[in-house]
Amino acid sequence: MMMRFALLFAVLVLMPVAGFAGGGETVKPPHHHWHFSGVNGTYDKAALQRGYKVYREVCASCHSMKQLSFRNLTDLGYDESQVKAIVGEYTVMDGPNDEGEMFERPARPSDQFPSPFENDKAAAYANGGALPPDLSLIIKARHHGPDYVHALLTGYKDAPHDAHLLEGQHWNKYMPGHVIAMAPPLSDGQVAYEDGSPDTVDQYASDVVQFLTWAGDPYMETRKRTGMKVIIFLLVFAGVMYGVKRKIWSDVH
Amino acid sequence: MGSGERVEFDNKVVNWIDERLPLFTLMQKEYGVFPTPRNFNYFWNFGAIAMFMLIAMIATGIFLAMNYTPHVDMAFDSVERIDRDVNWGWMLRDIHMNGGSFFFIAVYIHIFRGMYYGSYKKPRELLWILGVVIFLLMMATAFMGYVLPWGQMSYWGATVITNLFSAIPFVGDSIVTLLWGGFSIDNPTLNRFFALHYLMPFVILAVVFLHVWALHICGSNNPSGIEPKGKQDTLPFHPYYTMKDTFGLLVFLVIFCVFVFYAPDYLGHPDNYKEANALVTPAHIVPEWYFLPFYAILRAITFDIGIPFTEITIISAKLGGVISMFGSIGLLLILPWLDTHPIRSARYRPKYKFFLLVFLAVFCMLGYVGSQSADAVFFGLPMTLIGILCTTYYYGFFLVIIPWLNNTEKGKDLPKSIHDAVLKTEREKA
């Protein structure tokens, strides 16, 4: 028993020290004010469209977005014919048909975004064992979501001398533990913007973050608008009830 | 209930029904003219608020269940489908998700109100015990509900909590197998949790009925802690308290809606937006915020208890933690017999009031400890030490301080009646 307490004591004293040395260090990402931040924040549709372009041309080669369908793209400000034009660039595997065969057909707006790999195993195998996460909810699934993803995409640095990186690993300031399997995905001039926005990594990262935020929370604008109506109604109702309550209680006070 | 005197109603249809089934008489007696102490403060709103939240949870839950698929391969996606493709599904889910939290907020305040004003004391012991039973049922329901979206925290939270039962000697492993419906957390676990999560709220509703029934037998306590002595001390429940409760409820709902519409995920954990994966353990498994104080008590016991100078362990650290956690709620059950002081309200018991407020602070601190990883540091002190100190105070408050105050605290002079107490405060204000 004494030994146990001695051991416990040792654990209690040493644990904080071990905690610091244990790695998994996280750096808080710098805070941005986004177009969608705040009570009245809305999505900047031009940014969403640019972000979608970045996703399509860069991220989509490794990352799936299984929760999204092409029909959702009307939210980005595309009309139906534009969505059809985008859809026209894809074919999807369907079936089995009446003969039991799988077949390729042109994609329809109701189809999900196609995934770059057959399954998770294939995706991990093609990426040196690291599974590229699905991006549908990436913003909601991370602390400080938008700020974190933006910081991560722009946070690649040369590894410090004491860092031990294996083949296929990279050093990123904002990745917990700093070691990340994803190679720096963005470089200046990589995606050609048509609206004259700067072709920089920072701009790409910012646009794709806005697109991914929408992807995880497509009803944000409706939610905030509804919330405003609900809360104003409740406040007025509460005010009226306060008056009623005072009136009723006036004879007992 | 139906044996008492019936009220005559002017409306013939109402009267016809009431002669055969005296529902209207019941409502009139229990919610219309029901004599209620006249000196309630706003702490007395939280019973009605909790009732409203329970009904809101059941109502939104039924519609969510219509669109949810309790299968490990489909549960996560079906929840996303509710958010994205079900008409107003996102709102239903945001209300249900945050409704759980706000139900607990209301109930925690309601329980603390009971402790502050001595509402558990004779003759309200059973009323109080039924309340603790509701609290326990809520915890079970909330835990199982959190598993349903089948995110990472759902899965790993379920792993941690169900594994607790394995600490029970002899039968522990069998209980865990029974909970899981197999030898690991899998589809059968999700299925039974879904079935039970749908069932439990109705069990809660039944116990709430008993709770309210018991309340209407002995009547409400009040901030002075003295029983009403006559008509001058009470008011009919309607319209005085129906209107006051409605106002309080609306203020509560404003705060609730700020979360629902502007920060729906603030009280949740980002990891639950990752689908459950048995091969990847989250860096830091934490339960929902309302379990954190009890989670901290569970983790506070980090040592085995055995016979000194031998290797014999009587209570392992794990079992010790489980006993402490359930014991901490068990103490609430026996609180009416721990605190036998004749004065109910902390208003007239300055020492009890002081220790109770420290208890509140310690309880909040335990919540903070529960949210931190085991190797965290708090102002240079290891978090585990803070955890064990706070747990010691939690137990000490019930088992040492309260019994000690029974014999030593004299307390202030009580006012002669509620009427007197009200007039006195009115005079002081003027």
Number of helical elements of chain A:
7
Helix content of chain B: 55-70%
Outline the low-pLDDT stretches of chain B: none
Q: Using only CA atoms, what is the Rg of chain B?
A: 24 Å
Q: Report the helical percentage of chain A.
A: 40-55%
Q: Would you mind describing this structure in some detail?
A:
The complex is a heterodimer of chains A (253) and B (430). Chain A is mainly alpha-helical and 253 residues long. Chain A has 7 helices and 4 strands. Chain A has helices at 2-21, 45-57, 80-87, 120-126, 145-153, 201-216, 220-249, and strands spanning 91-94, 103-106, 170-171, 179-180. In chain A, the strands form 2 sheets. Chain A has a two-stranded antiparallel sheet with strand order 1-2. In chain A, helix 5 runs antiparallel to helix 6. By secondary structure, chain B is mainly alpha-helical. Chain B has 15 helices and 6 strands. In chain B, the strands form 3 sheets. A two-stranded antiparallel ribbon of chain B has the order 1-2. A two-stranded antiparallel ribbon of chain B has the order 3-4. In chain B, helix 11 (292-300) packs across helix 14. Classes of the chains: A mainly alpha (253), B mainly alpha (430). Chains A and B meet through helix 1 and helix 7 of A and helix 4, helix 5 and helix 10 of B.
